[in-house]
Design brief:
This protein is an all-alpha fold. It is globular, with a radius of gyration of 19 Å. Helix 5 packs antiparallel against helix 6. The C terminus is likely disordered. Helix content is about 65%, strand content about 0%.
């Protein structure tokens, strides 16, 4: 089966082909961050909740309408705050860095595809900023996170070989920091680790990254 939120990824096809400049991407991110501090998403969910049918049911579950909030109630306020801080801190580092690469190497041949993947990565993070206060809704942005890996690989593959080891080492440290943040912010959900083929498989519903 496919989760209903995966339909949101259909936006990636037109977004990939957009010719967004670095400045445009920064504006998109800033606007999304500002919207994230407003009650926009709660208002939208309340509107969808009034439509009826399957959409209303999902809106009620995600937005806590009519006392229903099976997604967010399972996570404490401390865990939500920790996840929010770690998510924002990670983006403060990686987004400016990836945008700088696009600007720095704008005249290189390989930057064309990089810019297209950057469109998707920026869009995904813009979605994250809009819904960052609601853990359940963050899954809408999760489909765009893998483009971070693609962008880093494109960068590594196109820099001089004598500089690759240094940058690979830096990215490994960055990945370790991310892992530590995730484990610390959702320890009870990730430790001990269960995979889908365990006989006594059990997973608490909780944080999404």
């Amino acid at each position: 089966t496919i989760h209903i939120t995966a339909i949101f990824f259909l936006f990636s096809y037109p977004i990939y082909h957009r010719n967004w400049s670095v400045k445009t991407k920064i504006i998109i991110l800033v606007l999304a961050l500002l919207v994230g501090f407003t009650p926009f998403m709660q208002t939208l969910l309340e509107f969808l909740g009034g439509i009826g049918g399957r959409i209303a049911e999902k809106a009620a579950a995600y937005g806590g309408l009519n006392g229903v909030d099976r997604y967010n109630d399972s996570v404490s306020e401390a865990e939500k705050t920790t996840a929010l801080i770690s998510g924002v801190l990670k983006r403060i580092f990686i987004i400016p860095f990836l945008l700088y690469i696009e600007h720095r190497f704008k005249n290189n041949n390989w930057i064309y595809k990089y810019k297209k993947f950057m469109n998707l990565f920026v869009f995904g993070n813009a979605v994250y900023f809009v819904v960052m206060r609601d853990i359940a809704l963050q899954r809408f942005a999760a489909y765009f996170y893998p483009f971070e890996i693609i962008l880093l690989c494109v960068f590594i593959d196109n820099i001089p070989k004598n500089k690759r080891i240094k940058w690979i080492f830096i990215f490994i440290l960055y990945a370790l920091v991310k892992l530590i943040f995730i484990l610390n912010s959702a320890h009870d959900y990730l430790v001990p680790y269960y995979w889908i083929f365990d006989i006594n498989f059990y997973r608490k519903s909780g944080l999404n990254f």
